[in-house]
Automatic annotation (TrEMBL):
The lineage of its organism: Bacteria, Pseudomonadati, Thermodesulfobacteriota, Desulfobulbia, Desulfobulbales. The keyword Metal-binding applies. GO terms for biological process: proteolysis. It comes from the Bacteria. Belongs to the peptidase M18 family. InterPro entries: Peptidase_M18 (IPR001948), Peptidase_M18_dom2 (IPR023358). Keywords: Aminopeptidase, Hydrolase, Metal-binding, Metalloprotease, Protease, Zinc. This is M18 family aminopeptidase. Its cofactor is Zn(2+). Gene3D superfamilies: Aminopeptidase i, Domain 2, Zn peptidases.
Length: 442
């Protein structure tokens, strides 16, 4: 098992180098490949795989990885877990550049339910996927990451808005326009041409390329940090939910390949999961149908399996204790949180929660509970979507964090390590350890 300090170093490297879902999936794939996982392509013909370890990418931003034994067709359980690769942020518009008062600005869309105020006055870089045509006329695509600060959204001086600290509102269309450069030209520059140098730097095969389109995001260049007097906290961007992705990847790699285990890292969770690569799309179902072609055996397998939806939970904020149910106050560095909701915003039930708690006990880590106040709307995860689509018993869990959906979030230093330990224990567990007791009327 990875030591706590080694875990922090690995986590920071993964998140700092994954500014977009595309980079997160690529880094996950590279980690899997380095540990003996073989890539499969959906365009190839494959089924009835031999025992081993494999992974599949979809749209360069979602990933499914699994380890198999030779008894998969016998209806033995799958240890399954899922997280998401995307985070709320600012996505670059197709025709982004506009020029006013000698300033070239870049139009962006708000992706997901982002906390907007923290985006002001931050050093922002640009990363994502670019598609281009080379001289041979063929279409290519690759990732870019500027790494350095290239944009900023300056705040309006308080002298020009004296009520900013009491009555501030943010207009997504007019206030969130990053400053990219200065120019004395009358027309805005061609944004696609501006991308060429970075594209070639990150993709040498793109020399003399014509950029056709892109999926680009802004991100904060400040790296993750350990903070607090005793380094109790970790702070940084995209803890929700790359911390969970990192834990699932490393738990799967460290699991015993004699057991059937699978992880799915979906894109587009923050915008509803309705896409070819999202949890409400067919990605996981498609892969399972290829792994277990017989529908009866597949149904047997899923009925006896467990799916763990891993997505960060709301830690109690010491300044806003009243925002939590008084009997459900998750604390930082006190272990992963089981999330429940009577209206099925989370897929947890008493049996699946008990099974997860049992694994926490066996891994000798603490476990907490969260339920939303009755007078506040509850968020959701990929858990209910996956449970409804597959009919698999599901539990929603996650580490507690503060400042969820901010450009810089806060979590406990130990909680991700706890999560890694319990997920490793689940993937390594024998078949009998996954079974819930049968429930039925006499």
């Amino acid at each position: 098992m990875m030591h706590a300090n080694e875990y922090i170093e690995s986590l920071f490297s993964f998140i700092n180098n994954s500014p977009t879902p595309f980079h997160a999936a690529a880094n996950g794939a590279a980690l899997l490949s380095a540990n003996g996982f073989q890539r499969l392509r959906e365009t190839d013909r494959w089924s009835n795989l031999s025992s081993g370890a494999y992974y599949v990418l979809r749209n360069d931003a979602s990933l499914i990885a699994f380890s198999l034994n030779d008894r998969l067709q016998q209806g033995l359980p799958l240890r399954m877990a899922g997280a998401h690769t995307d985070s709320p942020g600012l996505k670059v518009k197709p025709n982004p550049l506009q020029q006013r008062q000698g300033c070239v600005q870049m139009g962006v869309e708000v992706y997901g339910g982002a906390l907007l105020a923290p985006w002001f006055d931050r050093d922002l870089s640009l990363a994502g996927r670019v598609s281009w045509r080379c001289r041979d006329g063929h279409l290519h695509c690759g990732l870019i990451d500027c790494k350095r600060p290239v944009a900023i959204i300056p705040s309006l001086a308080i002298h020009l808005d004296r009520e900013v600290n009491s009555k501030r509102s943010i207009d997504k269309q007019t206030d969130l326009i990053p400053l990219l450069m200065l120019s004395n030209e009358k027309a805005s520059p061609d944004f696609k041409k501006l991308l060429i140098d970075q594209l070639v730097a990150d993709n040498p095969n793109a020399s003399e390329a014509e950029v056709l389109d892109f999926d680009l995001f802004l991100y904060d260049t400040q790296p993750l940090a350990q903070t607090g007097w005793h380094n109790e906290f970790i702070t940084g961007a995209r803890l929700d939910n790359l911390l969970s992705c990192h834990a699932l990847l490393h738990a799967l790699i460290r699991s015993d390949n004699r057991h059937n285990s699978l992880i799915v890292l979906n894109d587009h969770e923050e915008v509803g999961s309705v896409s070819t690569a999202g949890a409400q799309g067919p990605f996981l179902k498609d892969i399972l149908e290829r792994l277990i072609p017989d529908p009866v055996v597949r149904r047997q397998t899923l009925a006896g399996s467990l799916f763990i939806s891993v997505d960060n939970a709301h830690a109690v904020h010491p300044n806003f204790i009243g925002k939590h149910d008084p009997e459900h106050l998750p604390l930082l560095n006190h272990g992963p949180v089981v999330k429940t909701n009577a209206n099925q915003r989370y897929a947890t039930n008493g049996l699946t929660a008990s099974l997860f708690r049992l694994f926490c006990q066996r891994a000798e880590i603490p476990c907490q509970q969260f339920v939303m106040r009755n007078d506040l709307a509850c968020g959701s995860t990929i858990g209910p979507l996956t449970a409804a689509e597959l009919g698999v018993p599901t539990v929603d869990i996650g580490i507690p964090q503060l400042a969820m959906h901010s450009i810089r979030e806060t979590a406990g230093r130990l909680d991700g390590w706890y999560l890694l330990r319990v997920m490793t224990a689940i993937f390594a567990a024998g078949d009998d350890a996954l079974r819930c007791p049968e429930v039925g009327l006499p």
